[in-house]
């Protein structure tokens, strides 16, 4: 049991965050960590609830509440309070393969569900996790653990995002021979080429991949399965295949002028920026075209926010972020009580930076683009916007956002980034393996199962679940590994 009065004695204290006007000058991580002594007090705030919602990972009102990995949160918090960092690391990694990723990028479903929310601030579970894992790396406790014996069974994993990596780690642990195929030049999926470096330094991924290689996992980059290697070849060479290719089909905006130059899908743009950073620290000048330009980001979500922060770092003259829906409330409404996921308006790092640089929130709500206007050279120059209002469709009863007559206006836009979400898996891969897909083009399985319609082919992550979060991708990878191991060995002891 932790400190019974900890939550009464200590306020929540977060680690220092570099000021927006300073951090926009670089692409490095800008969140620091508390000292271990201070973090111990944060661990002491945990009430060790009899019913710890933080670790429940349940669906409530259609949204996930609590940690999907069912991390043993009260127990690790107690070990943090006692400064028993090594045991805390052991306890955390009983359920979690990659705390160094989620402790940087997770929206912390655990904290949203924490009981302390009822009367104040939640326990800082995410920062506790970061100090635990970074202390473990500092002290050399994170070492490669190659299996003592090999089963001789071979598993191919297509896609090296968090789901593919989690599946690889688990299956290798059981002694199977695992090869991860990745079409890009570097491993990591959206951890590498989606989430910007200032949120997740790519050295953190390299550090983990090195360990996984030392444990015996083979990584093959630059191999596009379904194009460079046929599905049949993979199925011939490997006993099982896991498709973990992500939900990489971006939702487009079909309006006149869409073909203009300098209109990008958000992930293509973010990927180009990270590649230029990693290849040459921007010396290749591939991202110079943003400097001094008016940038319009279409999509008010987290990916849009990453585009805002990235464009500011690249020297954009102005940045606006368009959102179709009305602004969410600033605090929970009565119909969205704890421990449901809070459907509230958050101002993320990119928006904070835009406020600091331009003096106002970049988001414009209830607005979309109806046309892009280009110059003679075909470069986008302007965007025609229209205001939207909610209107009930009498036939279906659904609320739709419809244009307000006479609300059109034109704004300057020399770079446009479309961050309007994803539409599921890519057809060439699912066609290559002939796996059935659902109406959203996610790979179809029975509920809570991971084997596809094709024997020996399994699936995990966004490709299965639809666009989601790193923590869910890790959970999917673990579950798929469990199913694969069971099908290979007749039983499994993977958790
Ligand atoms: C810009 C952006 C920011 C995000 N930020 C966050 C965040 O802060 N926190 C959070 O929790 N989640 C975030 N997400 C969501 C999160 O990144 C994803 O849910 C998660 O990465 C999905 O993991 P995955 O393993 O299923 O797929 P992915 O990470 O998409 O990886 C799939 C991999 O498969 C490879 N691949 C695809 N087809 C083939 C093929 N045929 N052959 C070989 N390789 C192939 C792809 O190149 C890719 O590397 C973000 C998403 C985006 C787009
Ligand atoms: S819900 Fe909050 S206070 Fe309760 S055990 Fe979990 S982290 Fe601790």
**For the residues shown, what is the average pLDDT?**
97
- CATH topology annotation of the largest domain: FAD/NAD(P)-binding domain
* Structural class category: alpha/beta
Percent range of helical residues: 25-40%
Low-confidence parts lasting 5 or more residues at pLDDT below 50? none
Quickly describe the structure.
By secondary structure, the protein is an alpha/beta fold. It has helices at 6-9, 20-23, 36-44, 73-81, 85-92, 99-105, 109-113, 125-138, 162-173, 190-193, 202-214, 231-237, 266-280, 302-313, 349-358, 427-433, 462-465, 470-489, and strands spanning 58-60, 63-65, 154-158, 177-182, 218-221, 240-243, 263-265, 294-298, 318-322, 363-364, 367-374, 380-392, 399-403, 409-412, 415-418, 457-459.
Overview of the molecule:
The chain is α/β, with parallel strands linked by helices and 495 residues long. Helices cover 33% and strands 16% of the residues. The chain has 18 helices and 16 strands. The protein has helices spanning 6-9, 20-23, 36-44, 73-81, 85-92, 99-105, 109-113, 125-138, 162-173, 190-193, 202-214, 231-237, 266-280, 302-313, 349-358, 427-433, 462-465, 470-489, and strands spanning 58-60, 63-65, 154-158, 177-182, 218-221, 240-243, 263-265, 294-298, 318-322, 363-364, 367-374, 380-392, 399-403, 409-412, 415-418, 457-459. It has a 5-stranded parallel sheet with strand order 5-4-3-6-16, sandwiched between helices. Strands 7-15-8-9-10 form a 5-stranded parallel sheet. Strand 11 and strand 12 form a beta hairpin. Helix 4 packs antiparallel against helix 5 (85-92), helix 4 (73-81) packs across helix 8 and helix 5 (85-92) packs across helix 8. The longest helix is centred in the last third of the chain and has 20 residues, at 470-489. Bound molecules: flavin-adenine dinucleotide (FAD) and iron/sulfur cluster. Residues 105-106, 158-164, 181-184, 189-191, 194-195, 199, 224-226, 244-246, 248, 266-267, 270, 302-303, 306, 429, 461-463, 468-471, 473 line the site of flavin-adenine dinucleotide.
